[in-house]
Structure of SDR family oxidoreductase:
Amino acid sequence: MKKILIVGATSAIATACARLWAEQGSEFFLVGRNEEKLQQTAADLRSRGAKVVNLHCMDSTNFDAHPEMLNKCLQALRQIDIALIAHGTLPEQKACEEYADLALQEFANNCTSVIALLTILANQLEVQRCGTLAVISSVAGDRGRPSNYLYGAAKAAISTFCEGLRARLFKVGVHVMDIKPGFVETPMTRGLPLPAALVVKPEKVAKCVIKAVDRNVATLYAPRFWSLIMLIIRCIPQPVFKRLNL
């Protein structure tokens, strides 16, 4: 039975992943900001076969709350086999260009709060000498595009942090996975002018994540075709790239 911590547990991708793990009889410690949504998620997971579901309300940008959350998680689960960090927001780029305080808040939502969590979780898994840290970043972090470079910068920082952390924890038997979804049909992307052919359901991403965790994949593009798309985008020369409206 897997013991799983999910931060941002009510997000669409996290919920889809949890449902698949629940079918395996996993035990969960769910963290989120909205208690009502957490309760709904917990009930859903129990109906799908989850053995035990523990809940904890926390704003991840409150760094001082992280140690208490981890302590309660360890009291409930005793050990963490998988930690999935899935919280985040999709900021409005134009607003972030105008208001520096908003830009910094969104960077905290999408980057520094994740790094803070990864730090204390990494130390715990290092003591355990086992487990997987899985983090949802984004293909947006592969290159700074004018349409979302604040969000992309946050995700790029996470991916770089994960790469170094992976090399550190590999020596003690702990795996770190960087998950890079493309366009996913979620409440966060609702209403955006996305190319329909490239938009997938959260369930499809979740299936990719579950398989990748079992295989200790380092960097997961979900779905896989995004690895080719982003390879092409990364190869566009800078003099050309800066003229594109991406």
